[in-house]
Structures are given as C-alpha cells and as structure tokens.
Structure of receptor protein serine/threonine kinase:
Amino acid sequence: MHSQTSDYLDVGNNPRVGTKRYMAPEVLDESIRMDIFESYKQTDIWALGLVLWEISRRTIVNGIVEEYRPPFFDMVPSDPSFEEMKKVVCVDKQRPSMHNRLHSHPILSSITKIMKECWFQSPPARLTALRVRKTLSKLDQDHDYPTEKLKMDL
C-alpha cells in the first residue's frame, strides 16, 4: 500500500512477490529498496519489457510469427525456481533473445529498443512508464500503417 500524500509505503517484509519468471534482477538478488515506492515502479518496467517481448513474438511480420513461449523459455524449466531465475538474470545477465525479423519492421525495431531499455540491470537506468508511453504514442503517430501490415496473432 502506498499513499502519495504522505509517501507512506507498506509492503510487508517479503520482497519475493510476483511471478518468478517476471522478477527484476533487484527482486531476484534481494537488493530492492523496499522502503522506496519508485523501486516497485522500476520492477514493473522490467516486467513490461517482458510482456512487450511476448507480444512481439506473436506479431506477424512478412508472414512469419513465432509460437507462444514465456520469457526465458529456452534458459529455465517451465516452472523455474527463484534460484534458477536468479542465476539466469543476475549472475549470467541473460535477456530474452530477439528474432531477426523484429529488426526488419520499423515499429517492431523501435519496440525492440524499448524492451532492451526496460531490461537494464540497474533499475534507475530503465525507462520510466511515462517515457514508454510517449515513445509508443509517437510510434503510433509517425507510422500510419494499414492494419493488415502489422497484425497480432493472439
């Protein structure tokens, strides 16, 4: 619970909250500043990057679409442990791989850049939600593509 007026923050005493596969490095290595609300927003940006990655895999470009896979599907088991995710994300500093086709489409290429900026190891270096929103809005304005050019296969 967070109160904007008093900046009061009550999150309990367990930093290991959420789906392990989507946990940011600072949650996995337990270095998250639990007393600062901004820390939680930064972990959400990490997870947003993973959701954008999932969406981009299911986007048809030049007739190609990838089957659904969760983030880090090729690096951890289907139900990874906290320790397995910590090794992949914090120790090995792995990130989901990007298919080459994403770079061949101007919008997806820009979204790929956003994803990578959501996955910086250092939380303050990650994009803010406002910056993500503004960048996506600008992409929408700059590219007036017919809907059949970029389709989602959900």
Q: What stands out?
A: The chain has a mean pLDDT of 87. The chain is about 40% helix and 5% strand.
